[in-house]
Protein backbone atom coordinates (compact mmCIF):
# COMPACT_ATOMS: atom_id res chain seq x y z
CA UNK A 1 0.00 0.00 0.00
CA UNK A 2 1.01 3.59 -0.48
CA UNK A 3 2.07 6.11 2.12
CA UNK A 4 -1.61 6.55 3.19
CA UNK A 5 -1.56 3.44 5.24
CA UNK A 6 -4.22 2.94 7.88
CA UNK A 7 -2.25 3.26 11.02
CA UNK A 8 -3.97 3.73 14.33
CA UNK A 9 -2.81 6.93 15.86
CA UNK A 10 -3.75 8.37 19.18
CA UNK A 11 -2.68 11.88 18.31
CA UNK A 12 -5.42 14.49 18.68
CA UNK A 13 -4.84 15.81 15.18
CA UNK A 14 -5.63 12.47 13.57
CA UNK A 15 -8.66 11.89 15.76
CA UNK A 16 -10.29 15.07 14.41
CA UNK A 17 -10.42 13.46 10.97
CA UNK A 18 -12.61 10.60 12.08
CA UNK A 19 -14.63 11.89 15.03
CA UNK A 20 -15.84 15.04 16.66
CA UNK A 21 -17.09 15.84 20.08
CA UNK A 22 -20.51 17.27 20.92
CA UNK A 23 -22.97 17.36 23.73
CA UNK A 24 -25.30 14.39 24.13
CA UNK A 25 -28.28 16.71 23.92
CA UNK A 26 -27.25 18.04 20.51
CA UNK A 27 -26.54 14.57 19.22
CA UNK A 28 -29.88 13.20 20.34
CA UNK A 29 -31.76 16.17 18.91
CA UNK A 30 -29.91 15.88 15.61
CA UNK A 31 -31.14 12.31 15.40
CA UNK A 32 -34.67 13.21 16.39
CA UNK A 33 -35.16 16.09 14.02
CA UNK A 34 -34.09 14.05 11.03
CA UNK A 35 -36.36 11.13 11.73
CA UNK A 36 -39.77 12.47 12.64
CA UNK A 37 -42.61 9.98 12.45
CA UNK A 38 -45.72 11.94 11.60
CA UNK A 39 -49.27 11.01 12.51
CA UNK A 40 -51.71 12.85 10.26
CA UNK A 41 -54.93 13.81 12.04
CA UNK A 42 -56.60 14.87 8.80
CA UNK A 43 -60.08 16.32 9.05
CA UNK A 44 -60.28 18.67 6.07
CA UNK A 45 -58.60 19.99 2.92
CA UNK A 46 -55.25 20.52 4.68
CA UNK A 47 -54.93 16.74 4.70
CA UNK A 48 -55.11 16.76 0.90
CA UNK A 49 -52.25 19.26 0.82
CA UNK A 50 -50.33 17.00 3.16
CA UNK A 51 -50.82 14.09 0.75
CA UNK A 52 -49.18 16.21 -1.93
CA UNK A 53 -46.37 17.05 0.50
CA UNK A 54 -45.67 13.38 1.12
CA UNK A 55 -45.89 12.54 -2.58
CA UNK A 56 -42.91 12.30 -4.91
CA UNK A 57 -43.05 15.88 -6.21
CA UNK A 58 -42.63 17.70 -2.91
CA UNK A 59 -41.09 14.64 -1.26
CA UNK A 60 -41.05 15.26 2.46
CA UNK A 61 -38.67 12.32 2.84
CA UNK A 62 -35.88 14.76 1.95
CA UNK A 63 -36.38 16.01 5.50
CA UNK A 64 -36.66 12.60 7.09
CA UNK A 65 -40.36 12.80 7.93
CA UNK A 66 -41.93 10.47 5.41
CA UNK A 67 -42.82 7.42 7.49
CA UNK A 68 -46.47 8.24 8.09
CA UNK A 69 -47.97 6.22 10.91
CA UNK A 70 -51.62 5.86 11.71
CA UNK A 71 -51.10 4.71 15.25
CA UNK A 72 -50.24 7.26 17.94
CA UNK A 73 -48.02 4.67 19.61
CA UNK A 74 -45.67 4.66 16.63
CA UNK A 75 -45.53 8.37 15.91
CA UNK A 76 -43.86 11.36 17.50
CA UNK A 77 -45.15 14.28 15.41
CA UNK A 78 -48.89 14.90 15.47
CA UNK A 79 -50.07 16.85 12.44
CA UNK A 80 -53.52 18.31 12.90
CA UNK A 81 -54.68 18.94 9.36
CA UNK A 82 -58.06 20.59 9.33
CA UNK A 83 -61.05 21.74 11.32
CA UNK A 84 -61.48 20.29 14.78
CA UNK A 85 -65.04 20.56 16.02
CA UNK A 86 -65.89 20.58 19.70
CA UNK A 87 -67.27 17.06 19.38
CA UNK A 88 -63.88 15.88 18.09
CA UNK A 89 -61.91 17.53 20.90
CA UNK A 90 -61.72 14.63 23.37
CA UNK A 91 -60.67 12.27 20.57
CA UNK A 92 -57.77 14.53 19.57
CA UNK A 93 -56.75 14.86 23.21
CA UNK A 94 -56.82 11.10 23.64
CA UNK A 95 -54.65 10.56 20.56
CA UNK A 96 -52.16 13.13 21.84
CA UNK A 97 -52.06 11.45 25.24
CA UNK A 98 -51.44 8.06 23.64
CA UNK A 99 -48.31 9.27 21.83
CA UNK A 100 -45.03 8.48 23.53
CA UNK A 101 -42.40 11.05 24.47
CA UNK A 102 -40.73 12.83 22.82
CA UNK A 103 -43.62 14.30 20.85
CA UNK A 104 -44.39 17.43 18.91
CA UNK A 105 -47.53 18.93 17.41
CA UNK A 106 -48.00 20.93 14.22
CA UNK A 107 -51.26 22.80 13.69
CA UNK A 108 -51.58 22.92 9.91
CA UNK A 109 -53.96 25.50 8.48
CA UNK A 110 -55.99 28.24 10.08
CA UNK A 111 -58.78 25.94 11.32
CA UNK A 112 -56.47 23.91 13.52
CA UNK A 113 -54.58 27.05 14.55
CA UNK A 114 -57.44 29.36 15.43
CA UNK A 115 -60.73 27.97 14.19
CA UNK A 116 -60.27 29.81 10.91
CA UNK A 117 -63.42 31.22 9.40
CA UNK A 118 -65.55 28.92 11.55
CA UNK A 119 -66.10 31.54 14.21
CA UNK A 120 -69.17 29.77 15.51
CA UNK A 121 -70.50 27.55 18.25
CA UNK A 122 -69.38 24.23 16.81
CA UNK A 123 -65.65 24.61 16.05
CA UNK A 124 -62.83 24.68 18.55
CA UNK A 125 -61.04 28.01 18.25
CA UNK A 126 -57.59 26.50 17.90
CA UNK A 127 -56.41 23.09 19.07
CA UNK A 128 -54.14 24.80 21.61
CA UNK A 129 -57.24 24.94 23.77
CA UNK A 130 -56.69 21.27 24.56
CA UNK A 131 -53.17 20.23 23.49
CA UNK A 132 -49.84 22.08 23.22
CA UNK A 133 -48.75 23.17 19.76
CA UNK A 134 -45.15 23.60 18.59
CA UNK A 135 -45.63 25.01 15.09
CA UNK A 136 -48.57 26.80 13.52
CA UNK A 137 -48.74 26.76 9.72
CA UNK A 138 -50.97 29.50 8.29
CA UNK A 139 -52.99 29.11 5.12
CA UNK A 140 -56.37 27.87 4.03
CA UNK A 141 -55.11 25.37 3.13
CA UNK A 142 -51.34 25.96 3.31
CA UNK A 143 -49.34 25.02 0.23
CA UNK A 144 -47.05 21.99 0.44
CA UNK A 145 -44.18 24.49 0.60
CA UNK A 146 -45.85 25.95 3.67
CA UNK A 147 -46.07 22.57 5.36
CA UNK A 148 -42.41 21.87 4.53
CA UNK A 149 -41.45 25.28 5.94
CA UNK A 150 -43.39 24.41 9.08
CA UNK A 151 -41.48 21.15 9.32
CA UNK A 152 -38.16 22.99 8.97
CA UNK A 153 -39.26 25.34 11.74
CA UNK A 154 -40.07 22.33 13.89
CA UNK A 155 -36.63 20.87 13.18
CA UNK A 156 -35.10 24.18 14.20
CA UNK A 157 -37.06 24.03 17.40
CA UNK A 158 -36.00 20.47 18.12
CA UNK A 159 -32.34 21.42 17.58
CA UNK A 160 -32.60 24.22 20.12
CA UNK A 161 -34.94 22.37 22.35
CA UNK A 162 -32.95 20.13 24.62
CA UNK A 163 -34.16 16.76 25.82
CA UNK A 164 -37.31 17.89 27.52
CA UNK A 165 -40.61 16.07 27.65
CA UNK A 166 -43.65 17.76 26.15
CA UNK A 167 -45.37 17.83 29.49
CA UNK A 168 -42.42 19.74 30.93
CA UNK A 169 -42.16 22.04 27.92
CA UNK A 170 -45.76 23.09 28.28
CA UNK A 171 -48.17 23.51 31.05
CA UNK A 172 -51.04 21.60 29.52
CA UNK A 173 -54.08 23.65 30.26
CA UNK A 174 -57.77 22.96 30.48
CA UNK B 1 -107.89 31.46 3.16
CA UNK B 2 -108.39 34.57 1.08
CA UNK B 3 -110.19 34.64 -2.25
CA UNK B 4 -106.92 34.76 -4.23
CA UNK B 5 -105.54 31.79 -2.29
CA UNK B 6 -108.59 29.70 -3.09
CA UNK B 7 -108.18 30.53 -6.77
CA UNK B 8 -104.50 29.67 -6.69
CA UNK B 9 -105.18 26.42 -4.90
CA UNK B 10 -107.81 25.45 -7.48
CA UNK B 11 -105.17 25.91 -10.20
CA UNK B 12 -102.28 24.13 -8.52
CA UNK B 13 -103.97 21.43 -6.46
CA UNK B 14 -107.48 20.93 -7.84
CA UNK B 15 -110.17 18.91 -6.14
CA UNK B 16 -108.85 19.08 -2.59
CA UNK B 17 -111.44 17.71 -0.17
CA UNK B 18 -113.02 20.10 2.30
CA UNK B 19 -111.27 18.68 5.40
CA UNK B 20 -107.87 19.33 3.79
CA UNK B 21 -108.75 22.80 2.53
CA UNK B 22 -109.87 23.82 5.98
CA UNK B 23 -106.35 23.18 7.35
CA UNK B 24 -104.69 25.46 4.81
CA UNK B 25 -104.18 29.02 6.04
CA UNK B 26 -102.70 30.47 2.86
CA UNK B 27 -101.08 29.54 -0.45
CA UNK B 28 -98.05 31.06 -2.14
CA UNK B 29 -96.73 30.52 -5.63
CA UNK B 30 -93.15 31.36 -6.56
CA UNK B 31 -91.43 30.35 -9.81
CA UNK B 32 -93.85 27.53 -10.39
CA UNK B 33 -93.54 26.04 -6.91
CA UNK B 34 -96.36 26.02 -4.44
CA UNK B 35 -96.10 26.68 -0.72
CA UNK B 36 -98.94 25.69 1.57
CA UNK B 37 -99.02 27.36 4.96
CA UNK B 38 -101.07 25.13 7.22
CA UNK B 39 -102.09 25.10 10.84
CA UNK B 40 -100.03 22.78 12.99
CA UNK B 41 -102.98 20.67 14.11
CA UNK B 42 -103.67 19.68 10.51
CA UNK B 43 -100.10 18.82 9.54
CA UNK B 44 -100.42 15.06 9.59
CA UNK B 45 -103.79 15.06 7.87
CA UNK B 46 -102.51 17.21 5.00
CA UNK B 47 -99.23 15.33 4.53
CA UNK B 48 -100.99 11.97 4.76
CA UNK B 49 -103.40 13.12 2.07
CA UNK B 50 -100.67 14.50 -0.21
CA UNK B 51 -98.75 11.28 0.11
CA UNK B 52 -101.64 8.87 -0.31
CA UNK B 53 -103.97 10.60 -2.78
CA UNK B 54 -103.66 8.91 -6.21
CA UNK B 55 -103.65 12.29 -8.00
CA UNK B 56 -100.98 13.85 -5.76
CA UNK B 57 -98.64 11.02 -4.74
CA UNK B 58 -96.00 13.16 -3.03
CA UNK B 59 -94.03 10.09 -2.09
CA UNK B 60 -90.57 11.54 -1.39
CA UNK B 61 -89.66 13.86 1.45
CA UNK B 62 -86.70 15.85 0.21
CA UNK B 63 -86.08 18.05 3.19
CA UNK B 64 -87.38 19.10 6.55
CA UNK B 65 -85.96 22.03 8.46
CA UNK B 66 -86.82 24.68 10.95
CA UNK B 67 -86.57 28.46 10.72
CA UNK B 68 -86.25 31.16 13.34
CA UNK B 69 -87.87 34.45 12.38
CA UNK B 70 -86.68 36.37 15.44
CA UNK B 71 -86.07 40.01 14.43
CA UNK B 72 -86.97 39.19 10.84
CA UNK B 73 -87.57 42.25 8.64
CA UNK B 74 -90.91 41.04 7.34
CA UNK B 75 -93.47 40.32 10.03
CA UNK B 76 -94.35 36.63 10.38
CA UNK B 77 -97.26 34.99 12.21
CA UNK B 78 -95.00 33.27 14.76
CA UNK B 79 -91.33 33.04 15.67
CA UNK B 80 -90.60 29.51 14.44
CA UNK B 81 -91.53 27.64 11.30
CA UNK B 82 -90.99 24.06 10.17
CA UNK B 83 -90.77 23.58 6.41
CA UNK B 84 -91.37 20.30 4.60
CA UNK B 85 -90.28 19.73 1.00
CA UNK B 86 -92.20 16.97 -0.72
CA UNK B 87 -91.60 15.61 -4.21
CA UNK B 88 -93.99 13.70 -6.40
CA UNK B 89 -92.17 11.46 -8.84
CA UNK B 90 -95.53 10.73 -10.44
CA UNK B 91 -96.30 14.40 -11.14
CA UNK B 92 -92.61 15.43 -11.32
CA UNK B 93 -93.22 18.42 -9.10
CA UNK B 94 -92.40 19.70 -5.68
CA UNK B 95 -94.43 21.25 -2.92
CA UNK B 96 -93.48 23.13 0.20
CA UNK B 97 -95.45 22.88 3.40
CA UNK B 98 -94.90 25.37 6.15
CA UNK B 99 -96.12 25.27 9.73
CA UNK B 100 -95.69 28.20 12.08
CA UNK B 101 -94.95 27.48 15.74
CA UNK B 102 -94.98 29.86 18.64
CA UNK B 103 -92.03 30.59 20.89
CA UNK B 104 -93.91 29.35 23.97
CA UNK B 105 -94.96 26.05 22.43
CA UNK B 106 -92.70 24.98 19.54
CA UNK B 107 -94.37 21.61 19.21
CA UNK B 108 -95.60 19.81 16.13
CA UNK B 109 -96.57 16.22 15.30
CA UNK B 110 -93.82 13.92 14.04
CA UNK B 111 -94.13 12.46 10.56
CA UNK B 112 -91.40 9.84 11.02
CA UNK B 113 -93.91 7.06 10.35
CA UNK B 114 -94.99 8.61 7.02
CA UNK B 115 -91.47 9.28 5.75
CA UNK B 116 -88.57 7.36 7.27
CA UNK B 117 -86.18 10.16 6.32
CA UNK B 118 -88.03 12.53 8.63
CA UNK B 119 -86.67 10.76 11.69
CA UNK B 120 -83.17 12.24 11.59
CA UNK B 121 -84.34 15.56 10.09
CA UNK B 122 -86.63 16.04 13.05
CA UNK B 123 -83.80 15.25 15.43
CA UNK B 124 -81.72 17.89 13.64
CA UNK B 125 -84.50 20.46 13.93
CA UNK B 126 -84.78 19.69 17.62
CA UNK B 127 -81.02 19.84 18.16
CA UNK B 128 -80.46 23.16 16.40
CA UNK B 129 -83.76 24.98 16.95
CA UNK B 130 -85.45 23.22 19.84
CA UNK B 131 -88.55 22.23 17.91
CA UNK B 132 -90.34 19.41 19.72
CA UNK B 133 -91.89 16.65 17.64
CA UNK B 134 -94.72 14.74 19.29
CA UNK B 135 -94.35 10.96 19.37
CA UNK B 136 -90.89 10.94 17.87
CA UNK B 137 -89.23 7.63 18.86
CA UNK B 138 -85.78 9.07 19.66
CA UNK B 139 -85.73 12.84 19.94
CA UNK B 140 -82.07 13.25 20.95
CA UNK B 141 -79.21 15.44 19.75
CA UNK B 142 -77.78 14.45 16.39
CA UNK B 143 -75.14 17.08 15.51
CA UNK B 144 -74.16 18.84 18.72
CA UNK B 145 -72.34 16.87 21.37
CA UNK B 146 -74.11 15.30 24.31
CA UNK B 147 -73.05 17.93 26.87
CA UNK B 148 -74.35 20.81 24.73
CA UNK B 149 -76.87 23.12 26.36
CA UNK B 150 -79.27 25.17 24.25
CA UNK B 151 -80.09 25.28 20.56
CA UNK B 152 -77.32 26.96 18.59
CA UNK B 153 -79.12 28.05 15.42
CA UNK B 154 -81.72 30.03 17.32
CA UNK B 155 -81.14 33.68 16.59
CA UNK B 156 -80.75 34.49 20.27
CA UNK B 157 -77.93 31.96 20.78
CA UNK B 158 -74.65 33.92 21.09
CA UNK B 159 -72.45 32.94 18.14
CA UNK B 160 -69.31 32.94 20.27
CA UNK B 161 -70.66 30.73 23.04
CA UNK B 162 -68.47 27.66 22.79
CA UNK B 163 -69.20 24.59 24.87
CA UNK B 164 -66.35 22.24 25.60
CA UNK B 165 -66.95 18.49 25.58
CA UNK B 166 -64.96 16.90 28.41
CA UNK B 167 -65.12 13.22 27.56
CA UNK B 168 -65.63 11.48 24.24
CA UNK B 169 -69.13 10.25 23.50
CA UNK B 170 -69.69 6.50 23.41
CA UNK B 171 -70.29 5.25 19.89
CA UNK B 172 -73.46 3.31 20.69
CA UNK B 173 -76.85 4.97 20.73
CA UNK B 174 -76.18 7.39 17.91
Concise synopsis of the structure shown:
Chain A has 174 residues and is of the alpha/beta class. Helix content of chain A is 37%, strand content 10%.
Structural summary, described in words:
The complex is a heterodimer of chains A (about 170) and B (about 170). Chain A contains seven helices and four strands; from the N terminus they run ααβαβαβαβαα. Chain A has about 170 residues and is α/β, with parallel strands linked by helices. Chain A has a single domain (about 25-140, about 155-165), classed as Rossmann fold, CATH 3.40.50.12280. The radius of gyration of chain A is 20 Å and the shape is elongated. Chain B has about 170 residues and is of the alpha/beta class. Chain B is built from four helices and seven strands, in the order H-H-E-E-H-E-E-E-E-H-E. A five-stranded mixed beta sheet of chain B has the order 1-2-5-4-3. Chain B has a two-stranded parallel sheet with strand order 6-7. The termini of chain B are far apart.
Largest interface: A-B, 14 and 16 residues
Distance between the termini of chain B: 42 Å
CATH architecture annotation of chain A: 3-Layer(aba) Sandwich
- Low-confidence parts of chain B lasting 5 or more residues at pLDDT below 50? none
Topology:
The complex is a heterodimer of chains A (174) and B (174).
Chain A: H1 12-18, H2 24-33, E1 38-42, H3 45-54, E2 77-81, H4 89-98, E3 104-108, H5 110-114, E4 135-137, H6 144-161, H7 166-169
Parallel strand pairs in A: 1-2, 2-3, 3-4
Chain B: H1 3-12, H2 18-21, E1 24-30, E2 33-38, H3 43-52, E3 60-68, E4 80-88, E5 93-101, E6 107-109, H4 118-129, E7 132-134
Parallel strand pairs in B: 2-5, 6-7
Antiparallel strand pairs in B: 1-2, 3-4, 4-5
Amino acid sequence: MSEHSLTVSSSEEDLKNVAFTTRLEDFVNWGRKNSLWPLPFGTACCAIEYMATVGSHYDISRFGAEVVRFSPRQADCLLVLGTVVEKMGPILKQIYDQMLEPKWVMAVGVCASSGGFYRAYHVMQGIDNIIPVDVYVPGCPPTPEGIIYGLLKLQEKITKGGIVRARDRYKIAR
Amino acid sequence: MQETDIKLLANTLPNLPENIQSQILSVEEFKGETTLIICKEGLRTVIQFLKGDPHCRFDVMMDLFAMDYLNYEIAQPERFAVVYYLVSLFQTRRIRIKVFLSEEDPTVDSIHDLYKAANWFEREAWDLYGILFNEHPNLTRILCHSDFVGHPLRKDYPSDQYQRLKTAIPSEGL
